[in-house]
Every structure is written in structure tokens, then in C-alpha cells.
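::Amino acid chain::
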Amino acid sequence: MRSDRVRLAVAATVVLAAAHLVAVALVLDQPDRIWEVHDAFNWIAAVFGAAGAVIAARTFERGDYLRRVWALLALGSGSLVVGHAIRSYWAHASSGLDMTETSLIYVRLAVIAVANTGTAWGLLLLAYSYARSGITVPRTAAFNVVWGLVSALALGLMVRQLREDVAGFDSGRMAASSLISIISTLGDTAGIILIAPVLRVAYLMRGGRLAGAWWAMGLSEALWLIYDCKTWIAGPLPFNPAHVMALLVVVRDPALSLQGLAGLLHRAAVTGPEV
């Protein structure tokens, strides 16, 4: 992938998130329009994220370790496209009926479970990819402290969000709805913890070809955790809660698209000297 295409992919990711934020800000007093804006931009981001992961997977030969990594990440991001399609279809065809009142909620639960399992597994393999390739970078005491603090913060956010999820845990379809949130929170927390060693190597490689791909992946995981915790983040803020929630939902857009960008950056780092 040539450098101008890389720049175009980076610019597209930034412009997409900025345009989404501006579009939501312009319709904050129109709840129906807000959902339409989120739906449209999330479609673009989800497809971009899945496409980038698939492109990265196809960069490597069958049997390659990194092909397996990106195939799992593509499975996760592709499942999110399916999950968004279910939610989008339901919003347009349900005539106001809540999805938790139908059996479709169980289909969405299965899709979200596959998405988070695939992504977490892929990140786990990615975290060990350096050791597998023979690159060993001793962990300093400073890194262990920072990683411990970041992990503790992620776990703290996870516990607080899980309390809210469990509080809404009832039975039947409501339980399925709560499980969707729980699975997402657990998956994103695992992503934050697993990506930390990779980001450390990316920092040490700053200026190298692969650094950008790993930074994009790490930022994506951080934004997913913020998205999962948006309900209690919005509560204490001295603004209209509905407006704050609408703006926080925007982080789902770059969370989706940054994984696709990471895939494109990884392909660019592998496929030629012109980058």
C-alpha cells in the first residue's frame, strides 16, 4: 500500500469521527435524528473496520501466525457488522417495539459473544506475537507499574459497569440484554490489558513501520471501554444527560474504524518499501 493511500486511510478515520461528532451536535434537540446519525456513521465505521481487518489477514500466507491473528480480529469486527445490521434493521422495522421483547435479542447475544471472543483471542495471540518471532524486550519496573495501574483502572471501570449490568439482570430476554452488555465490557477490558505489552513494544519501535498499527489498535480498545461505561460517565457531568450520552456514543465510531486502520497500516508496513 503506497504512502498516499495510508495517509488517505488515516485522514478518512479522523474525518469520519469528526463529522459524526459535528452531525450529532447539530441535532442534539432532535432525538429521532440523533439515532439516524449514529446509525449511518456506525455503518460506515463498522464496514471500514471489518474491511481493514480482512485486508490485513489476506496480506499473510495460509498458516502464518499473523494471518491467524488478523483472521480472528476480522471475525470479531465482521460480527460487529452483523450485530449493527440487526440493530439497524430492528430500529427501522420494529415500529417502536423494544428488541428485548422479541427472540431477536438472543441472536444479537450470540453475535456479540462471537465478536468479543474473536477479538479477545486475536489480541491475546497478538500480544504473544513478538515472543513468538524471537523478539524479547525485558520489562522494566516502570513498565510493570504503569501496566499494573492501567490494568487496575480498566478493572475498576469494568467492576463499576458490571454492577449496573447485573442490577438490570432479570430473566429471559432482559437477561439476554444484560448479558450483551456484560460480554462487551469483559471483552473490552481484556483488550485493554492484552494490548498494553504490544503498545510498549510499539513505543520502543516509535518511528518503525509497525508502531502506527499497534497504536491504532490500542486506542480502539480504550474507546470501547469508554463506550461501555458511557452511562455512568454521563451521570455526574453538569450537562443534559441525554445530550452527553448522545455525544459519548460517538466514540463507537472511531473504536470500530481504528481497527480497520490498524489492519491497513499493518499491510502497508509489510507490503513494500514505498511506504
User: Anything to note?
Assistant: The chain has one domain: 3-270. Residues 3-270 form one domain.
